[in-house]
Amino acid sequence: MRFGVHSGLQNTTTDELRSLWRRVETTGFEWISIWDHFYAADATVGADGATTSGAVCFEALTAHTALALETRRVRCGSLVYCVAYRHPAVLANAMATIDHLSGGRVSLGLGAGWHQGEFAAYGIPFPPVPVRLRMLDESVQCVRLLLTEDTADFDGEFFTLRNARCEPKPLQERLPIWIGGGGEQVTLRLVARHADGWNVPFITPEAYRHKVEVLAEHCAREGRDPATIEKTVNLTLAWTEEELRSRFGGMADWIRPSALTGSTDQIVERIGEYADAGAEAVNVALRAPFDVESLDRFAAEVLPAFP
Hints:
This protein has helices at about 15-25, 60-70, 90-100, 115-120, 130-150, 185-195, 205-220, 240-250, 250-255, 265-275, 290-300, and strands at about 1-5, 30-35, 45, 50-55, 75-80, 80, 110, 150-155, 160-165, 175-180, 195-200, 230-235, 280-285. By secondary structure, the chain is an alpha/beta fold.
């Protein structure tokens, strides 16, 4: 079992983010990722795009670059870039550049997108889920071609490449591409077909086990060894019920079934359940204000139980 930290970019400052990333890197975690939102994940946005709260959020590509430059050891990931926000050629060229800046430590996560308020505010089309998933399918293929082939050609429903180049290539021979999400009919099939890694947030060990089994079934149909796909889960850390309610308010009851909470032994046991269900890594998902003391305690008391 490996451990990482997923850092939200909302309601914070660049100084706070940089300080958090430096601290995480010194405490035994192996991964730090950023999310891709223009508004806070819990922003209140009307159908007309009007926002009454939650508009403070840094942009992901820029933050990903800062993360790569601020750290020296950890893998720098994204969970996950929304494929509707940027053309895959933009993402491919950005990832190649960030990989050079990081010394070859970048992982690219992609997803279909869900924050309808952001789409509405910026006038970005928000098609139905099946359409967004087809966009995800094409985007993964385009990015892979651009990162690995001298020239890329692609004719799709949404994207077209003609003798397209992405130079220089990443430092990594194969920059890992992740897909985020738990949809069992399409998303996990795309994971089996295209991805090096898979991540899903905030589900119970029982639900995670079921999705790992579904993923294995898709892999069998695709002729893919499921062991070649890294499987991770994002979880909330709240040592006490008071911490959980203070951080999430009315969402606490929804978060609790998947939260890491209780004593050290209880949290270690809970992580073991995810490991038994097929998870290879747990990312502690943080939102500002960042509780670094709780994270330090986790590093000191929980990480040693998984040498």
